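WARN retry 2 of 3 for item q-0093 after timeout on previous attempt; input resubmitted unchanged.
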Amino acid sequence: MKRDMKAWLEALRTAPVKKPLPILSFPVVQLMGITVRELISSADAQAKGMELVARHTDAAASVSLMDLSVEAECFGSQIRVSDEEVPTVVGSIVADEEEARALAVPAVGAGRTGLYIEAIRQASEKITDRPVFAGAIGPFSLAARLMDVTDAMVYCYDEPDMVHILLQKVTRFITDYCLAFKEAGANGVVIAEPVAGLLSPALEAEFSGPYVKQIVDAVQDDSFLVIYHNCGNAVIRQIDSILSTGAAAYHFGNAIRMADMMPHIPAGAVALGNVDPAGEFRNGTPESIRAATRKVLEECSRYPNFVISSGCDIPPLSRWENIDAFFAAVAEFYGK
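OK item q-0093 returned
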């Protein structure tokens, strides 16, 4: 369903009572009685899951799977899949400049990307009461998975040309992927760039920010927004470069105190975060997550451009009583 997304975001920013916008998708496996393996392998299951979450919660938007293995798999990476955990990338496929130059850019639709695009197409038809956001990995985070995350940090110093060659290729692919989501009916995309949060500000400004900006410039308009996500602990020091990407909104993880970030966010930009997904949603209790949620709200709600969220993707086996307690705490805080 096509929307004026800039108007939607402005309404969210200025609303005195704000709906939460957690990164909530994988825990639907519990509602559906299926495994993570089954969810990631079926467009129908993903669309049905998004619809179930939308029916079950009063979230500001519907967000698809934050599966950061999909794009790397298209490039040829090996993926580890399980029944209970989000898929992960195993090993590396690029170790020198020659391999970076030889690496082919896959067509969008290769691997599981076709399933994920079809899931968004179906979800956009089923969910009409709120925006639908697709999910994609960020350029440095994808390049790092192709090189191996640990080695990627070293390559930024020792083999910067190789890293830039790889970044150019993955940026082209992610841009086309986001445009395919847009064509399928998505109202926006959450671009997850967590590995960039491990870089120094100078390295992030060279190897991440400009490439994210290329994607934003190519895909974002009045009907399609980019939410930038970074759950690294260096984001406050990187914030000037992050803001230069021009994303419509910025989502941060619980590696930082959200109240320390908010003074750095321009009043006209929306910032989201950051209740601990592992410590609270997955391993907390209804009482502890209610307290954690209220703490973030009390510290940050004085900023009109703040929207409460999870700090990252909520793990698949997070208990729904904890998820429900999060939404209840938000409603209680705003006096609903």
